[in-house]
Amino acid sequence: MAEDCASRKNSLTSRTECDIMKRGDIYRADLDPVVGSEQGGVRPVLIIQNDTGNLHSPTVIVAAITARQKKPHMPVHVPITAGESGLPADSVVLTEQVRTLEKSRLTKYLGHLPADAMARIDAALMRSIGTA
User: Fold this and answer.
1) The total number of structural domains that make up the chain
2) CATH number at residue 61
3) % pLDDT > 90, the chain
4) Which residues constitute the domain of residue 18?
5) What is the model's pTM?
6) Which residue has better confidence, 73 or 113?
7) pLDDT of residue 14 exceeding 50
8) Virtual CA dihedral for 4, 44, 118, 35, nearest 10 degrees?
9) Which helix (H) or strand (E) covers residue 62, if one does?
10) How far is Cα 31 from Cα 84, in angstroms, rounded to an integer?
11) Do the Cβ atoms of 88 and 111 come closer than 8 Å?
C-alpha cells in the first residue's frame, strides 16, 4: 500500500483512500513552512488523531518522526524500530512536535505501528501535555 495518495483517487466519491487514514498510520508529509524550532521538511509523521476524526475531518493530527536521536533520554521521544514501523531505519516519534495538517500534505503511506508501540506513544503524549 506504499503508493502516492494522488494515484488512489476514487472517481465515484472524488475522495482518495488517503482520506481514510487510521490512527497509528505513518505517512510522508511536507511540514514546511515552519517557524523557529518546529520540525520541517518532508519527513514521516505518525497519525495520532482518533479514527472518527480521521474519517470526517479534512485535517489530521500528527506527531513528527525523525531518524536522528539528538536527545536520547527525552521522556517525550519514543523510539520505534524499522521492523515495527515500516520505515527504512529505526526512528524516534517526537511527541512534543504535534501538529494539525491538511490531509493533502500527507503524500505517501509508509506503514502502521502495532498496538504496543501506540501504547508507548500514548504514554509519551500524556507526558508531553502534562496529563501523566
Assistant:
1) 1
2) 2.30.30.110
3) 70
4) 5-129
5) 0.83
6) 113
7) no
8) -130
9) strand 59-66
10) 23
11) no
